[in-house]
Amino acid sequence: MTTSLSAGHERSTPGLADEGGASGSPIAVGFVSGGAVEAASGTLAALGIAQDRLLVQSGIDPHDLGRTDPVAFALGRLMVVAAHRSGCPHGGLLAGRRTTLASVELLGVLMRNSETVGDALRALEVHQGLFDRGAVIDVGVDGPVAVASYAPYEPDADGIALHCERALTAMTTLLRALCDAEWAPDEVLVPRSQPRDTKPYADFFRAPVRFEQEIAALVFPAALLVRPVAGANPVLCRIAERRLRRFESGGLTDELRRHLRASLIHGGLSAQRAAETMAVHRRTLSRRLKAEGTCYRSVANETRLAVARQLLADTDLGLAEISATLEFSEPAAFTHAFRRWTGTTPSAWRRDRRGRAATAERAAPGQGGEAP
After folding, report:
1. What are phi and psi of 141, to 5 degrees?
2. What is the rounded distance in angstroms from the CA atom of residue 83 to the CA atom of residue 204?
3. Nearest to residue 94, comparing CAs of 61, 159, 31, 46?
């Protein structure tokens, strides 16, 4: 089943109304749909760059790639290589602009036919794992302010800053499709060092873009969440929701990881709170995690370490700010934990990571290395 949406109206092929067929299969943690890579490839083509060689360099077989095929979380590597090859530092922004309601298929049908913008964002929050199992989307409200965030499971993976940039751009594009083309957030938070040229970001988001942030997020008035989606069809909404739920999957460890990434954004990691949110008893949570070969403390530490690595690699935030973000009592406690997890200090890890990144950039295609 494929679905196209244009000019704000859905055009469904046979199969949606009678629930025949399937829009795709669940993908594993750490994978993204082929559609995400297709968007990045389209960006390469628009920049005049031959795609196949860069796909291979990034660990993606260009001859075995379909829109609905899951691809290992190599999209970040592709965008890093593309940025070096093209000299364009905002490739994530360009790739994200290619996301449409149609490109997220059945999820787009659900969002387009949700009663309110808030319902559409909650649908994205719940079901985006069918297309991107490398991150969690969270929508939170604090008084008059709403925050839609994108939190990768493995924030230290290659090119994760560009991934976050792509996701924020994609969310903005989807919100403009649901609201109007002129919609803009109040501000945009990006967990990466500020590029030399910020004009492309200002031109696209039409809002203050703040780099060097702990999270990737769109900030906007909470009143937007109750705004009706014009032309929503409740029948199509119910059918799309029912079909999407048939494809949901993932073990308890994956569910806990999603919860912890969202909780770390808002502050307050707690095994008891996690169990309550996941509707299980605290002891049941421990027992089921043990059956999957892990425990709450291990998953929580993995989450903290992953976020620490991303902030050390992609931002210039100080150790005090990072330790506070990760809920350590003081920088010394963070340094001690990081050394225990990795065998080195945060400062030494940052120097080494940036040294290796600089070496890779000098050897990248188009930058003194072998051209594709």
Report:
1. -125, 130
2. 19
3. 46
* Beta carbons of 32 and 132 less than 8 angstroms apart: yes
Residue 181 backbone class (left: φ over 0; alpha: ψ -120 to 50; beta: rest):
alpha
313: left (phi over 0), alpha (psi -120 to 50) or beta: alpha
pLDDT digits (tens, 9 = 90+) for 34-90: 566 666 666 666 666 666 666 666 666 665 554 444 444 456 666 666 676 767 778
Ordered structural domains, the chain, with CATH: 24-246 (3.90.1520), 252-362 (1.10.10.60)
Q: CB under 8 Å to 238, separation ≥6 — which residues?
A: none
The β-bridge relationship of strands 209-210 and 187-189 is parallel
> What DSSP string describes 126-176?
HHGGGTBTTEEEEEEEETTEEEEEEEESSTTSTTHHHHHHHHHHHHHHHHH
- Whether 161 contacts 181, CB under 8 Å: no
| Residue entry with tokens 């940039």 | 165
**Amino acid at residue number 85:** R
Handedness of CA 347, 352, 357, 362 (dihedral sign): positive
Nearest-angstrom CA–CA distance, 239 and 340: 49
DSSP string, 313-336: HH----HHHHHHHTT-SSHHHHHH
Cβ atoms of residues 366 and 360 within 8 Å = no
For residues 77 and 365, give the distance between their C-alpha atoms in angstroms, rounded to a whole number: 13
Instruction: Give buried/exposed letters for 212-221 (b at 16+ CB in 10 A, else e).
Output: bbbbbbbbbe
Q: What is the pLDDT of residues 204-238, one digit of tens each?
A: 999 999 999 988 999 999 999 999 999 999 999 99
- What would the two tokens of residue 156 be? 């230290």
Long-range contact set of residues 4-13: C-beta below 8 Å, sequence gap at least 24: 4/102, 5/100, 5/101, 5/102, 5/108, 5/109, 5/112, 5/177, 6/102, 8/177, 8/230, 8/231, 9/231, 10/109, 10/112, 10/113, 10/233, 10/236, 12/109, 12/236
Query: What is the C-alpha to C-alpha distance for residues 328 and 307, in angstroms, rounded to an integer?
Result: 13
Residue 287 contacts by C-beta under 8 Å, 6 or more apart in sequence?
A: none
